[in-house]
User: Fold these one by one.
Assistant:
Number 1:
Amino acid sequence: MKAQAITPDLKVELMKIGAFMHKKGLPSSFIAAAVETAFEFEGVYALMKMWADEKDKGEQDEIIADIQDLVDDCSQKEKIEEILF
């Protein structure tokens, strides 16, 4: 997972994707965690863009599972760093 420099335009794009996810009925807690994580890790950002562009519901569901996995991984990484430092 690579950290990225977030630009204001990228933040707005992620917020728009988050709003689209909300419109599609995804849980707010998932959306908030995904957007927050995407602000720092380009893998989550890329998956969110893929989800927004995907038309097949089954593929979207798989992408959501991948996003959740990365959010969980990033969350674990932060907890480990807090313990170590």
Number 2:
Amino acid sequence: MFQQSHLPKDKDATPTEQWGWSIQDFITENFWYLLGILFLLFLFLYARYSWRKRHEKNQQ
């Protein structure tokens, strides 16, 4: 694994130093994109549920 030159050699890197980002940073920077994805997922699942209910009613 490559070691970044600015890290001290006598101790292990923290996850942020090792990967260059953290989950909190990712969520903070991409909040609106993640919210949009969740909205589209909700919309898809609601449409699927609605279609299934309508389809079951027509079968009877």
Number 3:
Amino acid sequence: MNISQKTSLVAVAWLAAGWLASAAGASTTPPAAVIQSSQNAAQKASSVAFTDLTTLNGKSEMLSGQISSSQSQESLRASGHVVLQVRLVGDTLYFTTTVASALQSILGLTTAQATAHTNQWIEIPATNKAATAIAQSLTVSALVNIYAPKASASVSMARHKVQGKTLISITGRSNPSAKTLEATTLIIAQASSLPVAGTLKATQGNATEKKRATFRAWGKPVSVTTPAGAVTLSSITGS
């Protein structure tokens, strides 16, 4: 584990525990400008590795992966098992899952088709609506923006020292809907302007969703292998 990875893991752990509450000092740069600089730095780096833990109603899922402008991959784990994987190689998306209902809801397969093709890689052309939607989520900006404050949010910002490095935390609190309260925090390395971690907490009625993410390996090459034995979506649906 390298130093930047340690910093991101420590930062998100400290934030989750509330230990980043004591700031090392205030920043004179407006939060919006810091966020914009971070978004610019992320776009320039163009690639990142990440982990994203989501907890909802006592159940947890871990999404991890690597994202770049030309190749990306993600893996979703639940209850200790990989339940879904996505790979993007050029303009072609590859998708596999152990859950038949996911194939029905995401790819529009029938019950019989979904049951027959669980645990099998499916090749989906870029022109497919589902592939387009998934590919749009496999971008650096889409990943980081989950944790950036909404435009309507009440924003606060502070600086912190973690393992000798200065981090900037930007927290936004908003009401995306009448019954939803949301708080997001993006943690940025001051030296590079790159995000290192993020948290989200959204509450709607009795339901609470929590997310914690770490970002590392910014700008590093991403290599994704085309799955062997993939079947085309058109061969399944006949269209």
Number 4:
Amino acid sequence: MRKVFAVGILMSGLVLLSIEPATRHRIAASTRNFEQSFADLRTAGKLNPVERLVFSLVLASAHADPGAN
């Protein structure tokens, strides 16, 4: 199992290195926005799973870079 995990990490790293720097920047920004959305979800209190999904989608849309489209 560890070997499979190590190979997966290695392959992910190689894929990231082969991507253009601008694309890597957008992926990193998207990841930060995703993390921020979940932090906002934690502070939102108790929500059912559907409400959490809708809330996270709305937050992701609000944080989306308008120049990316």
